[in-house]
Putative GST-like protein YibF
Amino acid sequence: MKLFYSPASPYARKVMVLLHETDQLSDVELVEGSGTPFAPNAEIIQKNPMGKIPALERPDGATLYDSRVICAFLDARKGDKLYPTGTRRWETLTLEATGDGIMDAALLMTYEGRLRPQELQMTTFVDAQYGKIEQACAALNTRWMSHLAGPLDMGQVAIACALGYVDFRHGHREWRKGNDALANWFANFSERASMQATLPPAS
């Protein structure tokens, strides 16, 4: 299998953390590549018509894309270690969707600052996206800490990768303010070997 990814992508980081946690890193060839909505990577378009990463090329089936699809596939190969069954499964999937929602908002903030001409940038748009992140963090801090503190699952991985991306691209924003429980959980979770091995580049 080949994983098309970028070390700066929080969605790709989810997949990489899963590979580490399920001991599948040696099963996948890593192919680094990146692009933007204005200049997508031509090779990646051949794997994912949306031109987005990550994409997982398989020798015996269609190339998979969207991090949630890839993570579910890879986890199933190892006996569903990070997607539990029963009631907790739906909580895990909801947390993963929350993490991806944080990533979506943070990425839009990044694109606004990096890709749109300065004279056309909308501060109100950026602030609205960050408002979604603030709302998500507040909900996690008040409603989801018991799940986050439980057995490792993909919901936790998604939240950690999302918060890591907010720090990476928007570190001046103070998502930790008023979210002490979430901040403490994130600090501890970030010490996992899989998280340390998948840190985004310094710049």
Remarks:
- The mean pLDDT is 92.
- The longest helix spans residues 87-114.
- The chain has two domains: 2-77, 87-196.
